[in-house]
Amino acid sequence: MRVTLILLLLLAVLVAWAAHGIDEQLRNPGSYWGLSDKIALIATVAAFLQFVALVVTIFVMISSSRRQLRAYVGGDVGSIGNVANPIVVGGQAITPNGAVLANKAWAPVAYIKIKNAGQTTAYAVLDWGHICVREYPLMSALPSPNFIMKNASVLGPGIVATKFLFLPNPLTGQEISDLRAGKVAIYVYGEIRYKDAFGEDRSTKYKLMHHVAQGAIGVNTGLTFADEGNEAN
């Protein structure tokens, strides 16, 4: 913005100077621009255009450098556990893993890694997350983020923060049946806000889901990205 204003100001000065010369000639018909005046005008315009090209080049280089060096904070990987016991078919043995319902009194818990994949530090990092069971494909709106926490953190390049999200209640028998049938999914989503090293406000929104399409319920522990709801600036 500041570069644009400077260029407009310089252009206005050049236009005003040219207009003054024309006005002077109209008021004094006897006067005219000689060859030296025309050469000076051409040289001035050429110098101005070179200056504009230089400023634009510098601006593009600075912008490109910032894009390469800035912090990029987002969801790195996610998993979910304590979902349901797998269905045993034909006596087939299944090696227990984190997806198995280890404690019936507990609800499923999602594990999210938040990582700064950029080359500079992210400051004033705030994150919000939620987990819920909804229909699949998703047709209803999910609860919106609410940044009420004040414990902002700092993430240096390559630093990872962890986040655990728990469903408020254990899955019901119907919810587990619907998960196996692909009628519902467990959605894990949230938003991250931070400032980069150049003082710019940044945000990342993520939406993951646990669905039978990615593996059997009670066996698969993965969270995959949903079709919508993943964006960053």
Task: Please describe what this structure looks like.
The chain has 233 residues and is of the alpha+beta class. The protein folds into two domains: 2-69; 73-232. 30% of the residues lie in helices and 29% in strands. It contains three helices and nine strands, in the order ααβββββαββββ. It has helices at 2-27, 35-69, 173-181, and strands at residues 73-81, 109-116, 122-135, 153-155, 160-166, 184-195, 201-210, 224-225, 231-232. The strands form two sheets. Strands 3, 4, 6, 7, 8 and 9 form a six-stranded antiparallel beta sheet that branches. A three-stranded antiparallel beta sheet has the order 1-2-5, with no helix packed on it. A hairpin with a 5-residue loop joins β6 (184-195) and β7 (201-210). α1 packs antiparallel against α2. The longest helix has 35 residues, at 35-69. The radius of gyration is 30 Å and the shape is elongated. The relative contact order is 0.16.
Secondary-structure topology with pairs:
Layout: H1 2-27, H2 35-69, E1 73-81, E2 109-116, E3 122-135, E4 153-155, E5 160-166, H3 173-181, E6 184-195, E7 201-210, E8 224-225, E9 231-232
Antiparallel strand pairs: 1-2, 2-5, 3-4, 3-6, 6-7, 7-8, 7-9
Helix pairs in contact: 1-2
Number of domains: 2
Distance between the termini: 18 Å
Number of strands: 9
Poorly predicted runs are none
CA-based shape? elongated
Portion in helices: 25-40%
The assigned structural class equals alpha+beta
Count of DSSP H/I helices: 3
Oligomer: single chain
